């Protein structure tokens, strides 16, 4: 099925090469030839693409040895396949320096001892090369059609790997992230030493080609072919690429079908979020899905869309599959649960507990930067990550904190600087107070004089107060951050002392004021600003 490459040695067996002499580069006769080109100029740096067999009469250098040497050097640098020179009219001999240079680089130099028609040589070889390319395209199309037929009927990707091996004859290596390497034909490991020998053979051979298999913009698997006794051709690479594409389609189909099945388990997972299942029942459920899964705690992550319309317009199965693909590579097993306009993901940790947060951050980064998200096929949504629990039967606690995180994020809008409940610190306390008391009244008890002053005189006392506290009372640093002279700052501080009391920097009062500033910003975010207006 494969089309052999054309070498210099093959061309020398064709018509018009009956009367030749190979004067240099005998060891390079196996060089591949992709084209034949007639060339009489001596400056050729940008004229060749590589693998050309050059025909010349020598008129370009006309017995000028230095020009001739430069010409051959440029051919070698451009990765030409060889040089054929017609002797007689313009060239009568080949200097020893040229022969030595060509031998050093295994660059064939062939002499035509009789006049030959260059046009007939190029026509003959170009016709052969074009037919060869046509045969490659034909074989590639035939392979693709067979591959597409298999995709409609096969149950496991192993049949695609076997088909690739049967077609090319190369060793096939396939690896899905997080799983063991698969070999076709299978390699039976007799001992550790034998495995190391096999690995060293693979690494020492340069005859290896690898194609990444990407799903949703992420590398999901890797397909390689290894040749021990022959070079890997361009045709092999094309076949490898087509096979990788077919594998991606098959894997995506399997993932999609599996995700559909998981959607049916929604009710059981909702009960898990409500804390209704025992540790034993949860463990049984997990082992049914992943036999070797060993949970190391977990947490809940919520993706909430801005509206029900956005949620209904989204291919939610596709979104869950994207989420799962990204975060499984970060060491989490994901179990999605559908709600009104949210998808809640129960995240079971499989790696070191100490690294869970950094891995989650990396996964969120990949999610936000994915092609699927950037092409606006995913509408704007909030992500809230609840507290980490070591006992997976306590996911209800993580779920409640994830809901609280979403609430705070929705409240703060762009001011929210973290997806994680444990990072929200002061806002968690503020939210709790707001839930059970009139937070606005409490804030006004401390800050109303400053707020009213700024409103009446268009002043900047609130800004000054916030920066002054952040600088731990350093007047020099505060003036620098506010871009004001010290005299202006002193005047503002005097005003603050008059409005808040000259003890406002005392530790306990200062702590309360800092807390109220955060609370005021919380109230002024998004919809709460209307709440504040209603209180005035």
TrEMBL record:
Supply the InterPro entries for this chain. Answer: CdaR-like_regulators, PucR_C-HTH_dom, PucR_C-HTH_sf, PucR_dom
In this chain the Purine catabolism PurC-like domain maps to: 10-129
Tell me which residues make up the PucR C-terminal helix-turn-helix domain.
Answer: 461-519
PANTHER family given in the database record: CARBOHYDRATE DIACID REGULATOR, DNA-BINDING TRANSCRIPTIONAL ACTIVATOR ADER
Q: What is this protein called?
A: Purine catabolism regulator
Organism, by scientific name, is Saccharococcus thermophilus
The top of its lineage is: Bacteria, Bacillati, Bacillota, Bacilli, Bacillales
